[in-house]
Amino acid sequence: MTGPHPPGTGPGPDEQLDLRWLVGLMAANTVAAVGLFGDIVRHLSIVGVQTGDDFLAGWHLVLYGGVLGVVGVLAGIAWAEGPLGPGRRLPSATVGLVVLTAGGVGDALWHEAYGVEAAFPALVSPPHLAVFAGLVALMVAPIGALAREPQPLDRARSAIVAGSVTSVLLVITLFTGYLTPLIGGSEIQAGAYTEPLVATSILDHDTARGLAQVLWFATLSSFAAVVVRTRLAPERGTWTGAFGLLGLAPLVVTGFSALPLTIGLLALGAVTDLTGAERRPHPLATGLAAASMWAAYFLVIGLRGDLVWLRELWAGAIASSFLAGLAVAGGIRWIAPPRADVAPRVGYPTQGDREGAPEGGRDGDGRGRTVG
Distance between CA atoms of 285 and 305, rounded to whole angstroms? Predict the structure, then answer.
């Protein structure tokens, strides 16, 4: 890391962002995600609206620590590359920090006026949704920075992709706690209600929620994987690491009873890796990965003796997750520009283009060739 560039200048489009900034940003994002995780669990355990100011609540402090880490990274980039450096290098993080700060201030005012939200209202209160939007923008910033670099991803940068995907999915699943399978087994409202794991309750209401959770998570995980793989080619093992890390969350919340979810997420990551880490996978492969998670989950639930769904239900849930992954990947494949197999990104000049020579995978005019 060097001093600022001369005024009016900055890094060229082919210059990689210093790995230390990316590691620092991912670490700060991870701390913020952990703080959010603890705070959401705290809100879900509250019975009724609580009065008083909780601005300095313990998990809030962890969240703020992560945000301050992001501020430090952006300040460091501004020092190294000039005041426009953060916006040029990490525009998503810059915008996310502004939105998150505004949401935090609004949240403090909301709590002062209306009290602290309890249970699921905490997931949809306006200031919390602003915090959510800001956090998602922070979490995707490392992925966006890597997607703008023309160089292939090495192992370290692939690990940053894995950590960032985990953080993004964790934040989204926390804020959609009313529709995520990852809170199965959790006690809601100080133990007044326990959310059942998918397929472990015979009640029609729980069955309907379970089917919705399967469909939602298959859609979310497929979208995350396909979008990233459309623009980046992380090394093999990235997705096993990303979904495996996400699988730790239910274990932390509910303990060993959530092990089937962890195993299912590991299966999802492994199949995602096996179906093509170096090129954009076929939609059928994405559907297969989504279905593998729930096939592994139902297998473990069944071996444990907790599976109460009829064959039509659990088999239909696996088929539904396959169709969700297929639809998401097919839609993105149709509307998104593909990544050339010989380059990690489309639309950025390679060395051959800069020297005026055509290069494999590109037309003679230097534009990215469409790969169907």
Answer: 30
Separation CA 209–CA 198 (nearest Å): 8
CA-atom Rg of the chain in angstroms: 22
Q: pLDDT tens, 90-130?
A: 999 999 999 998 998 898 888 888 887 777 788 888 998 99
- CB 92 within 8 Å of CB 144: yes
Residues 6+ apart with CB under 8 A from 126: 106, 110
Token pair recorded at residue 312: 């039509």
Q: Are 241 and 162 in contact (CB under 8 A)?
A: yes
Give the length of the chain. Answer: 372
Report the SS3 class of residue 239.
helix
What is the Cα–Cα distance from 322 to 317, expressed in whole angstroms? Answer: 9
Rounded distance between C-alpha atoms, residue 232 and residue 70, angstroms: 23
Q: Is the overall model pTM greater than 0.85, yes or no? A: no
- Strand-pairing partners, residue 362, are 368
**H-helix or E-strand spanning residue 295:** helix 283-304
CB 57 within 8 Å of CB 39: yes
Contact 278, 152 (CB under 8 A): no
Distance CA 44, CA 46 (A): 6
- Give the HSE-up count for residue 68: Cα atoms under 13 Å, Cβ half-sphere: 7
Query: What CA–CA distances, in Å, run from 88 to 27, 146, 284?
Result: 21, 13, 37
